[in-house]
Please model this.
Amino acid sequence: MDKILVRGGHALKGKIPISGAKNSALTLLPCALLTDEPLTLRNLPRLADIDGFQHLLNQFGISTMIAGSRPEDFGRVMTLSATRLTSSVAPYELVRKMRASILVLGPMLARAGEATVSLPGGCAIGNRPIDLHLKALEAIGAEIEMTAGYVKAVAPKGRLTGGSYTFPVVSVGATENVVMAAVLANGTSDIKNAAREPEIVDLCNLLVAMGASIDGIGTSDLIIHGKDRLHGATYRVMSDRIEAGSYACAAAITGGDVELVGAKMSEMDATVKALRTAGVIVESTADGIRVTANGTLQALTLETAPYPGFATDMQAQFMAMLCMAEGASVLTETIFENRYMHVSELNRMGADVETKGRTAIVRGVEKLTGAPVMATDLRASMSLVIAGLVAEGETEVSRLYHLDRGYERLEEKLQLVGANIERVSAD
Ligand code: UD1
Model:
């Protein structure tokens, strides 16, 4: 198994290209189910999760073709054609490996009139139920049955009716599922307290490009007028605001000066505000965002929340950065119950982080020290790389499959800005 070795102490300087957003791509790909015409997605990141999702869609009889695969290119173009579906079942073996597979439930149900998807189960960061996905689909006409670890959803008479649903808590995944189902319903759907993440806006924009009718895009009240059919489209995946935010934390902790090429300030308000409060200079440029730090960081108080709040996906990276800030920071994780697995690893590197339930107190330290570390989820793994960039000596990050799920060619991008980082085979 591969490892990443980071030798800290180099201020990052230069340009980092930001890839297409993983979280957006994983909800745009299943839209191929909604039409029998080809869907072409540009700027797809090259990530293990995208390959896994492609494999899942192939199981349903969707053909996929990839272009732009020169090894030196970032991103890819994929054309997906669901002319005829051969299966409506997402099996346990695939769903277990990739939670996002649950996002085929809504579009498959809308297109085929039925869908059977394995229950995803929990994951390292928490329990992660799907009850809200099911309730929202029921509200627009689905009949749902659970058997032997699978959810079977059926649209009586072959087509969903549309309907109203108010989410009791904001759910990104459940909003995505119900929107993808409602676009082909035989009626109008009104989805209240919907998630408003930029990735949901990206999803709605793709669906509109495919002929869907959605009012209220970017708000928490989405009104979807179902259509008889959608058509194909060519669409560019938005840039990855979480990847950009992660590299911003990396630049900040090293006292660096980095331009995040392709990043969009308007989608990163909470991250930018937090960086600025910590003393980091963040400016728009013609091509993206420039992040400059002078080596001194201030402590912060941060609480994760649905968009436009501070993203749970940025919590671990900020925690790593704040380990080197002056004073004590207070972080509160409100979305997931178990998203502090990086704490013990950061402490092994000399950090001073104490958790109490959902709150973490991060007391700034003078220095971090390299150590062998590993993490059990994607953003936690990135936080260890960020800490390694400033730690004295060598940090060895293992279990790279987490990073490969969400960061396209991480070590190459960090090498571009002068980091001493390499991927080595553990053998
Ligand atoms: C969540 C994050 C998203 C992040 C992703 C991966 C939020 C609101 N969502 O999206 O930003 O990119 O993790 O880290 O920040 N819930 C239920 N029942 C359900 C669905 C969700 O109770 O059926 C609860 C969850 O346990 C959680 C909250 O609702 O506490 C939000 O979950 P949700 O947005 O659905 O999770 P993801 O779509 O995975």
